[in-house]
Design goal:
By secondary structure, this protein is mainly α. Helix content is 77%, strand content 0%. It has five helices and no strands. Helix 2 packs parallel to helix 5 and helix 4 runs antiparallel to helix 5.
């Protein structure tokens, strides 16, 4: 995303390193390392994009007060993980199901949905910011 914060980039790097470390030392139970890595990295990307959308919508110009912004961010993050249509929930469900059944099904659909959601949030945020200026 244009204008991504350094902490967002650091989150992606830390998440990617964590996925690689788990794949390297974890018990994959017959799942190929490449499939496990693809599944984990797509899940990380999906969750990062969904979280970035929640953060963008829980800050200025949509929520003006810092206290309300933090409350909206916490509530939005919770909804992103438990709401049925959320890409983050779908990605986490794919990871959990894969761990239980010893399969690796990359969450392509969830990642695509997260990319579309991020593009939509970026467009809405840009329009709202331009309207304020």
């Amino acid at each position: 995303m244009p204008g991504a914060s350094p902490s967002g980039t650091a989150s992606v790097i830390v998440g990617g390193v964590a996925v690689l470390a788990v794949v390297a030392v974890g018990d994959r139970r017959g799942v190929a390392a490449s499939a496990a890595m693809a599944t984990g990295l797509l899940a990380v990307l999906t969750c990062v994009l969904t979280g970035a959308c929640v953060g963008a919508l829980a800050s200025r110009p949509f929520v003006r007060g810092p206290g309300w912004s933090v409350s909206a961010l916490v509530l939005g993050s919770l909804f992103a993980l438990v709401t049925t249509g959320s890409p983050a929930k779908h990605a986490m469900t794919a990871l959990i199901t894969g761990a239980r059944t010893a399969t690796a099904t990359p969450p392509w659909l969830a990642c695509g949905g997260a990319v579309l959601l991020a593009a939509g949030c970026a467009a809405v945020s840009r329009a709202a910011t331009a309207r304020l200026e």
